[in-house]
Write a structure and sequence with these properties.
By secondary structure, this protein is of the alpha+beta class. Helices cover 46% and strands 10% of the residues. It contains 16 helices and 10 strands. The strands form 3 sheets. A 5-stranded mixed beta sheet has the order 1-2-8-5-3, with helices on one face. A 3-stranded antiparallel beta sheet has the order 4-10-9. A two-stranded antiparallel sheet has the order 6-7. Helix 8 packs antiparallel against helix 12, helix 9 packs antiparallel against helix 10 and helix 10 packs across helix 12.
Length: 401
């Protein structure tokens, strides 16, 4: 395999359904330089160490000319970079501020208080399966739940939720390094539209505070920083959770022995979901980091100013770290996967995503008797970074109360 072809093959839609043979090939060269100067790092300990190395920057302004910069520049959107694309000390200040209304120690019950409302949404979505002999797990179940959750987190009125469905799809394309002109234009329009909407909503929340993070943060953040944060939460919190719910469903239907055990042992949910996050991570790789100095990794020196892709999905199947890594095994011990990343950029929304997964997955398989997958592999989304099925059509036999 030539060194100038591997990233093109990984991002090629033809390999979207099963990129794991490519990742296995990539791990043979833990630090691989492509002809354009990009470095792909694919083994577990090297990915983990670099993600925790302050010499690696998430600020895409450090990218050399000609390299993709995920998201849209400020001059096109009027918004500053969201905190995921910043470095300390700016990153730390923004993240600490945003975390106050989101969870412990300042707001320990914020997420837990949402549990009942989200459980009700799960019930309503499953009730709608009544009388059907086939459903699309994405459109009919996995897709609507995370948008409702993010809107509740932000304090968006329920009647405005449909707006966020369309924006989430368009914005997700902005993190794909291969997103073409049409995708970038759609993302830019979506950012402008959601920016205008959020600007009005934040001003309303500032004058008339209510539930949700926008009201809590309006007095503490500039409107533009708060808008950028809300956009990040929509992209990161929606698409990844849709993928996680869908990937879990697909993986269980492909492993009937594990599914049968899950029916008998509902407590298996915790290790099962963690194993899916290792086995089929909703974020496959992080393509927006840049070295701030020369960095030695696994016998290779990555020069200062080099774009670096951290290959999470490849690292999660590194046989040096995980025994039989291509086997789906909910009994796996010491499963310290990188499904939610690691270091200072560890997924901000991981507690919310886990709560949604633990509300959605057990109830889905408790109530629905599946007969078979109608397409395997199913059609996948174009996005190589936020990889997941676009549709998951399944035949169902019964729906329990």
């Amino acid at each position: 395999m030539t060194t100038d072809s591997i990233s093109a093959q990984i991002t090629d839609y033809a390999n979207r359904a099963d990129p794991y043979p490519l990742y296995a090939e990539l791990r043979k060269t833990p630090v691989l330089r492509e002809d354009d100067g990009t470095y792909l790092v694919s083994t577990y300990y090297e990915v983990r160490n670099l993600a925790n190395d302050p010499r690696l920057s998430n600020d895409t302004r450090h990218r050399p000319p000609g390299h993709a910069r995920p998201g849209q520049p400020a001059e096109e959107t009027g918004l500053p970079p969201s905190f995921i694309f910043t470095d300390p000390p700016v990153h730390d200040r923004l993240r600490e501020t945003i975390n106050r209304p989101f969870g412990p120690p300042h707001s320990p019950r914020f997420l837990d208080d949402m549990r009942g409302d989200l459980a009700k949404v799960v019930t309503e979505l499953l009730d709608a399966f009544e009388g059907k002999d086939q459903v699309d797990i994405v459109d009919d179940f996995a897709y609507p739940l995370p948008v409702t959750a993010i809107c509740k987190v932000l304090g968006v009125p329920r009647e405005d939720e449909p707006l966020f469905h369309g924006w989430a799809d368009a914005l997700a394309s902005s993190v794909d390094p291969q997103s073409g002109g049409n995708g970038k234009e759609k993302a830019q329009r979506a950012r402008q539209d959601i920016g205008a909407y959020l600007s009005d909503l934040i001003e309303t929340k500032r004058r008339h505070p209510g539930p949700g993070m926008l009201s809590a943060l309006a007095p503490e953040m500039t409107p533009s920083d708060l808008e950028a944060t809300a956009v990040l939460l929509l992209v990161a919190g929606h698409e990844t959770t849709v993928n996680a719910i869908t990937n879990t469903t697909l993986t269980l239907l492909r492993h009937p022995g594990v599914l049968d055990r899950f029916h008998k042992e509902p407590d298996l949910a915790v290790p099962l979901i963690e194993e899916v996050l290792r086995y089929e991570p909703p974020v496959q790789f992080v393509p927006w980091t840049t070295t701030l100095a020369d960095v030695d990794v696994a016998g290779t020196t990555i020069p200062k100013g080099s774009p670096v892709w951290l290959m999470i999905a490849a690292a999660n199947r590194d046989p040096r770290r995980f025994e039989n890594p291509d086997r789906f095994d909910p009994d796996r011990e010491d499963n310290e996967h990188l499904g939610f990343y690691t270091g200072i950029h560890y997924c901000f929304g991981a507690p919310l995503a886990r709560m949604e997964l633990h509300l959605a997955v057990p109830e889905l398989f408790r109530r629905v008797t599946f007969s078979r997958l109608l397409e395997d592999p199913p059609p996948y989304r174009a996005n190589a970074v936020l990889r997941g099925p676009r549709h998951l059509p399944v035949a169902i036999e019964d729906l329990a109360p």
